[in-house]
Fold:
Amino acid sequence: MVKTAFRDVRESMRRKILDGEWAPGELIPNEAVLAEHFGCARATVNRAMRELADEGLVERKRKAGTRVRQTPRRRAQFDIPIVRREIEARGQRYRYALVERAVSAPPDWLRARMGLGPEGRVIHVTATHYADGNPYQYEDRWINLAELPAAETADFTASGPTEWLIATVPFSDAEISFSATAADAELARHLGCAPGDPLFLSERSTWWQGGAITYVRLVFQRGHRMTTRY
Amino acid sequence: MVKTAFRDVRESMRRKILDGEWAPGELIPNEAVLAEHFGCARATVNRAMRELADEGLVERKRKAGTRVRQTPRRRAQFDIPIVRREIEARGQRYRYALVERAVSAPPDWLRARMGLGPEGRVIHVTATHYADGNPYQYEDRWINLAELPAAETADFTASGPTEWLIATVPFSDAEISFSATAADAELARHLGCAPGDPLFLSERSTWWQGGAITYVRLVFQRGHRMTTRY
DNA sequence: CAGTGGTCTAGACCACCCA
DNA sequence: GGGTGGTCTAGACCACTGC
Structure:
């Protein structure tokens, strides 16, 4: 086993908080005192406490000391899956089908969204992702050719733009949002649902080294749920 | 300024990865070498590297060393807001209105969802949250009276069950999920939208010390978006 | 001003796990 | 078996900030 002193200390402190021994708002003994209490070095207490602070359970300030948060911060964390892996991880067969691909000038709403200038061209790719033969997700993607000229010659017939981007752009910042929309005629056709059906969707804008790379709208089959624990 | 050696080292390493100097899949020099390279202690490199690993940018294994991830793990993190604060943070006026409150035996679907036995009672509270006078969120909450008998005498007329729970239960584990649904007649009435409108919703089940505490369904006004960066 | 947390160091031990 | 990361320690310096 790896040494676990800091975990033990952390969990021990967590218990004191959860059990109310250290009440919300209360000042916790300082690191030196705790180190002696737990029979370890101050650095060990520091690491344990830092993790509790990262979690949002306590709040630390120099001189003022460490306090139990009145309201523990609540955060949820999601893994953003690649649709192929998401489907295959559930033991289903993945299939990809390109719907359309076109190069054009960016529409106004996209220029606003990605912060593009009036010049420039984008490639627009739409595709459907299937799980066991059933439509699972409809992808509507725009790629900024000014930043990624190679996208113009990329082949999106066999695999999707997501996988091409992942292989091409090593890493990126992104803004992601989730919402609900009603299926229009086109979505209904591609997803095999009824027009008007409520659909869960995810939108993502991605930047790399300050430049806008891509915007994608992923609409899921009706009934889709995104779940996590925290 | 606080000392920033580990941050400098971390960002320096991040750049090497983002710029491709350390390519995906590639083995990174070991900690001892890096410590010498950066002119710092190995512990400093270790902390920097550990944070990159937490981020999902690199993968570490004893003996095998540290590698740049082929596909950086993509994670999104959301703060789960308390609706009152969410609204007030946007400078809008918050108003709460209790719709109904009733004590009963748990319906079957709830028993399944929360893992409740056939015995026991639950309190069911529905309420609407308003921003600047407009319906913002409809809350449909169930609280397990076996775990939280005090809920039966709690007053939910002035403020919502969420705030009562936060003040009562110090901390908890939760499972949260997001999806889309169509407004039924009741939702349409409470949210002031049309029946059939696509609505974004969040569901959360909460446990405390192994016991199921509460299940809540929060349905947002149409057009709602949940956004984050990563 | 002085107490507290934030950080760094040099050294050490060892669990893990690939070769 | 041996190299690598994981962790701990004891000590140190200091930025920050409440008093």
